[in-house]
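Thread amino acids onto this structure.
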C-alpha cells in the first residue's frame, strides 16, 4: 500500500478521519460504490454510498505470491446489490477494489485491495462475499493438454473462428420456454438439427439480458425444434425475449475441417497413440516385415 506524503502525515498525526471505500465492477460494466462512512463520498467519478450497510472483515495481505483475501458483508437493497442480480449470477467474478480514505479530504487515499469476487452467498436480506486477491489467479492450471480433442474454446484467439460470420449463429425470439432451460421453436430456418449442440445461448433482450447458457442438445420433437441447456438460466425468460444461438463444436478434427474450415488452427493432437499402443511391449522376432508369422 503506497501512501503519499500528505496521507502519511495524516496517519502519523494520531487524529485521523479514516474510512474505507469499495468499488464493485461487474463484467457487464455496471459499477457500484460503497463506503463505511456515514456520508456519501466521491472520487474518480464514482459515488460511494453510505447507506449500503456494507462492512468488511480484516484484510489479510502478505508479500510474495501469497493470496490476499478478505470478506465483505452488506444489506441487499434495490438501489445497490439486488438479490435477483446475485441469483442471476451478474456479480460472478466481478472486480473489487478497496481504498483507505481520509473522508475529510478524499484526495488522501491508498488502494488496499485489488481483486475479484469469489463465493457469493445471500440470506435474510443480506449478502456475504468472499474477496480474492489477484495472486489467486496463479492457482489456476495453465498450459496445453496432450489430448486428441481440440483444447481451444470455439471463437477464442487460439481457435480463430469468427462467430459473427453468417451461418454460425442466429438471432431469434423465444417462443415456448420451460424452466429457463428448454426452448421450443416452430423452426430455425437454415440450420440442421444438432448444429447448436455444445454451443451457446445468449439472452439479448428481457429480464435475463446478458446471461448465457451452454447448449446440451439440439433436436426435433413433435414438429418443433428444441434447444436444451445443461443448466437453467438464473433468471426468467419469457416468450418474445431476444435470444442468440451460437453454433457448437464437439472438438473433433473432422468437425473443425468440415463445419468450420479451420483445420489450420486445430488445437488437439489427433495422431496421439491409443491405449493398445501405450501398453504394448517390445518383442524379438526374426521376421520384421510386418506380415503374419507361421
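Threaded sequence (294 positions):
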Amino acid at each position: 500500500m503506497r501512501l503519499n506524503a500528505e496521507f502519511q502525515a495524516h496517519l502519523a498525526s494520531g487524529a485521523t478521519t479514516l474510512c474505507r471505500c469499495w468499488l464493485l465492477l461487474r463484467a457487464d460494466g455496471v459499477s457500484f460504490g460503497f463506503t463505511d462512512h456515514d456520508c456519501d463520498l466521491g472520487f474518480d467519478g464514482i459515488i460511494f454510498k453510505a447507506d449500503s450497510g456494507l462492512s468488511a472483515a480484516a484484510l489479510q495481505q502478505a508479500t510474495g505470491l501469497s493470496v490476499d483475501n478478505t470478506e465483505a458483508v452488506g444489506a441487499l437493497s434495490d438501489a445497490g446489490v439486488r438479490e435477483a442480480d446475485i441469483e442471476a449470477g451478474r456479480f460472478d467474478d466481478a472486480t473489487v477494489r478497496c481504498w483507505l480514505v481520509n473522508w475529510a479530504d478524499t484526495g488522501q487515499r491508498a488502494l488496499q485491495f485489488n481483486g475479484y469476487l469469489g463465493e457469493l452467498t445471500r440470506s435474510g436480506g443480506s449478502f456475504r462475499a468472499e474477496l480474492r486477491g489477484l495472486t489467486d489467479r496463479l492457482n489456476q492450471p495453465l498450459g496445453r493438454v496432450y489430448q486428441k480433442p481440440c483444447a481451444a474454446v470455439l471463437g477464442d484467439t487460439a481457435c480463430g473462428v469468427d462467430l459473427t460470420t453468417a451461418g454460425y449463429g442466429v438471432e431469434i425470439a423465444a417462443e415456448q420456454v420451460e424452466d429457463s432451460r428448454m426452448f421450443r421453436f416452430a423452426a430455425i430456418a437454415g440450420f440442421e438439427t444438432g448444429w447448436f449442440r455444445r454451443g451457446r445461448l445468449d439472452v439479448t433482450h428481457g429480464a435475463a439480458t446478458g446471461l448465457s447458457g451452454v447448449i446440451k442438445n439440439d433436436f426435433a420433437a413433435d414438429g418443433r425444434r428444441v434447444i436444451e441447456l445443461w443448466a437453467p438460466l438464473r433468471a426468467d425468460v419469457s416468450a418474445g425475449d431476444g435470444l442468440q444461438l451460437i453454433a457448437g463444436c464437439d472438438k473433433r478434427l473432422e468437425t473443425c475441417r468440415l463445419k468450420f474450415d479451420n483445420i489450420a488452427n486445430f488445437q488437439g493432437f489427433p495422431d496421439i497413440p491409443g491405449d493398445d499402443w501405450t501398453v504394448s511391449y517390445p518383442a524379438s522376432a526374426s521376421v520384421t516385415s510386418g506380415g503374419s508369422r507361421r
